[in-house]
Design a protein that fits this description.
five-stranded mixed beta sheet; Rossmann fold; about 35% helix; 2 domains; 15 helices; alpha+beta; eight-stranded mixed beta sheet; BirA Bifunctional Protein, domain 2
């Protein structure tokens, strides 16, 4: 057993896993930039209040899952459990509201939550995040939704469908919350202790409860859509019309509220088939009051977060092909001290010309070096020995055909580039 092991809920991404990671990240970036999104990177940790204020007390994320610590200056800091709050802080601090609207931003990086580890869910996990700021219309919602739909579809996920709900606005949400609280008042001894606490701190959270004893109460709870105002109802109807126009499957899920307090109007999840008990693969929604809540100017927004580990787990289970790791195009084999010195020089020169090159290390027989070149899938092996150096040439073997020719050292780079 090794003396040290990685922390619980973390993952070592080994070289053989990197093709999947590169493929997913590249696909996400490509789709985002096709739609005009610009990249923004924010710190891995923020003042704790940024997350507590935006995500909301009473949520599992704030109450149970955040990695919070006090730094040497006595400041309370938290590793980001999600991107949106930090991106909104950056939007305010850097005066991004003066840029042309809408502003489309995306991020890729590590996030942290103290959750029970399970397949595809870790305590440190990578996330792709996208936001559209400064636009209130449902067309912004559907653009965010189609971005992640196209991502999953292009990565081999099957039978995709949206789960949709509306959580209203500051005008109609209090009406629904009062009805929900009245409903739950009839079950004081039935619901779990967490839901008793949630009713005080964040009532909508009761609809997201997974406790078996709470499921019948949730099933009889009033539906948010029966209490939304005219504006919110129209927004939701327009969103559904767009999804119908695009031919995208969706289900209105009256229990869907998502896990963060800042959502208004649209909330959604993407569900996929064939991935086990957890059908939801990502989620997001609209947060029109979040920037104002954090001290910025009133700015509507909509966004989504996508966990990458779960994508890769599913891709592997579905045997989705990905581009392989790039192999060295040229392998430098050498025999003797003088040849090794020339190999060092040539390796540097080749790489300076963008020729991917692997140089053999140490003193080994030629047969051993050729075996290594084959294992590394090199296209050409450049062989240097005393005789070759004396003549100012190198023997070059094409691995696919076995053909071998002599090429002058001064012409070697041009010769290789013409064939690669």
């Amino acid at each position: 057993m090794p003396r040290y092991r990685r922390p619980t809920g973390t993952l070592d991404i080994l070289p053989e896993d990197q093709p999947h990671w590169d493929h997913v990240r590249n696909r996400a970036r490509h789709l985002a930039e096709l739609a005009g999104f610009e990249r923004i990177d924010v710190p891995m940790f923020e003042a704790t209040e940024v997350f507590a204020r935006s995500i909301g007390a009473g949520t599992d994320t704030v109450d149970k899952e955040m990695y919070t610590f006090t730094d040497k200056g006595g400041h309370s800091l938290t590793l980001r459990p999600e991107f949106t709050a930090g991106v909104m802080r950056a939007f305010i601090e850097n005066g991004l509201h003066v840029r042309p609207r809408p502003l489309k931003l995306y991020s890729v990086g590590a996030t942290f939550r103290y959750e029970r580890p399970q397949a595809g869910r870790y305590r440190q996990f990578a996330q792709f995040n996208a936001e559209i700021l400064g636009e209130q219309g449902a067309d912004a919602d559907v653009e965010i939704m189609m971005l992640v739909w196209d991502l999953y579809a292009g990565l081999g996920f099957q039978d995709l469908a949206f789960q949709l709900n509306s959580t209203g606005c500051p005008q109609c949400k209090p009406v629904y919350v009062s009805r929900l609280e009245a409903h739950y008042a009839g079950y004081p001894d039935t619901i779990c202790k967490d839901c008793v606490r949630r009713l005080t701190l964040s009532p909508l959270r009761v609809l997201d409860c997974k406790a078996a004893q709470c499921q019948p109460v949730i099933g009889r709870a009033p539906h948010f859509l029966d209490y939304v105002c005219e504006e919110c109802a129209e927004h939701f109807a327009t969103l559904r019309d767009y999804l119908d126009l695009l031919g995208r499957e969706y289900v209105v899920n009256h229990r869907l509220v998502r896990g963060l307090d800042y959502y208004t109007k649209t909330v959604f999840e993407v569900w996929a088939a064939g991935i086990g008990a957890q059908a939801a693969v990502c989620g997001g929604g609209r947060y029109d009051g979040l920037i104002e809540l954090l001290g910025g100017p009133p700015t509507p927004g909509v966004g989504v977060g996508v966990g990458l580990e779960r994508i890769i787990l599913v891709m592997k289970s579905l045997n989705v092909p990905v581009p392989p790791l790039p192999a060295p195009r040229v392998f430098l084999a050498h025999l003797g001290t003088a040849a090794r010195r020339e190999a060092v020089r040539l390796a540097n020169a080749f790489r300076g010309e963008d020729l991917a090159t692997w140089m053999s290390f140490g003193d080994r027989r030629l047969r051993s070096q050729l075996r290594e070149a084959g294992k590394r899938s090199a296209d050409f092996v450049v062989i240097l020995g005393e005789d070759e150096l004396a003549q100012g040439v190198a023997s070059v073997k094409e691995m696919a055909t076995g053909d071998q020719v002599e090429v002058g050292l001064v012409n070697l780079i041009g010769w290789l580039k013409s064939r690669l």
